[in-house]
Structure formats: structure tokens, C-alpha cells
Amino acid sequence: MTLAEHYGVPDDERVLDSQWIQDAAEHGWPVLMKDKRVRYRRAEIDAVIQYQSQCFVITRGDLSSGEMASRFLTVRRAIFEAVTRPGPYIYAVQSDRIDRLYPPPS
Fold first, then answer.
1. pLDDT tens, residue by residue, 56-66
2. What are the residue ranges spanned by the domains of the chain?
3. C-alpha R_g of the chain
């Protein structure tokens, strides 16, 4: 479900990231996003931790929507495997794999 589908237009443009992360987690929805800076924003990290969110993020801002969709589809098996484990976590979606960003790998 997209933000526009869940909140409606134009409300989807006004909802805080920390709020939609909370709402997605409360519905049991893994989060697919494009935001290369999410791991550095305290409010978003706090929401991921507090609500045990399962997040998968495209960290390249120069990709087209088709390229982003292709990445998610290419690594879908890794995402499906990851979501069998509880959050909180954030994975970067690469062209051929997912890499854990948060909590940082030890």
C-alpha cells in the first residue's frame, strides 16, 4: 500500500516520516522507501526502534521509478527472508542484494 492509498491525496504529502513508519509497523507492513539519509535522522531511527519496523531502502537518489521497482523485484527473496525476523532493522536495497544498515552489522 502506498502513502497516497493509505492517507489519501494530498494528506500523504504532509504525514511525518516517523508517523507513517509507526503506522506501517502497527499494521505489520514492511516499509519500502527511497531515502538515503534515513539512517541518520534521529526521529526516523527512534520510530524504527520503538515500533520494531522492518525497513528496506533505496539509497540512490538518481534511479528512475522503474529502476527502483526492478531493484525491489530482483532482491525480493532476500526481503521475504528478512521479514521472517522481527525488527527493528533497516536494509539498503542494492542491485543484487540487501545490506543491513541498522543496527550496524557487528
1. 999 988 999 99
2. 3-102
3. 13
